[in-house]
């Protein structure tokens, strides 16, 4: 369940950077997951990823890095995602279903 959260956040963050920032994704330079809460049905997981990108800027490409935080509630039947930040506070809003049986 934790691996699903990490793989989804990697896909989400790299697509977001390429689609919304008009840059070229070039790789990840770090990530971490932490189970923040266990329930009878599943886990609440906080995910952090740091990714690298390049952007064409005149004659010289510009390199950059950006961090993404996401929250996941993952069960055997479904997973939901909410954007997050570096805090340990579980978001109270913004949850969207990202997978279901």
Description:
The protein is elongated. The chain has 1 helix and 5 strands, in the order H-E-E-E-E-E. It has one helix spanning 2-20, and strands at residues 24-38, 42-55, 62-75, 78-83, 96-100. By secondary structure, the chain is an alpha+beta fold. Strand 2 and strand 3 (62-75) form a beta hairpin. The protein has a 5-stranded antiparallel beta sheet with strand order 1-2-3-4-5, with helices on one face. The protein starts with a helix and ends with a strand.
Radius of gyration: 15 Å
Overall mean pLDDT: 91
Q: What percent strand?
A: over 45%
Helical residues, percent: 10-25%
Distance between termini? 14 Å
Characterize the main sheet. 5 strands, antiparallel
How many individual β-strands? Answer: 5
Class inferred from helices and paired strands: alpha+beta
Q: Kindly report the spatial arrangement of strands forming the biggest sheet.
A: 1-2-3-4-5
The succession of helices and strands, N to C, reads HEEEEE
Extract low-pLDDT stretches. Answer: none
Shape type: elongated
What's the helix and strand layout?
Layout: H1 2-20, E1 24-38, E2 42-55, E3 62-75, E4 78-83, E5 96-100
Antiparallel strand pairs: 1-2, 2-3, 3-4, 4-5
What is this entry, summarized?
The chain is α+β, with helices and mostly antiparallel strands and 101 residues long.
Pick out its properties.
elongated, alpha+beta, 1 helix, 101 residues
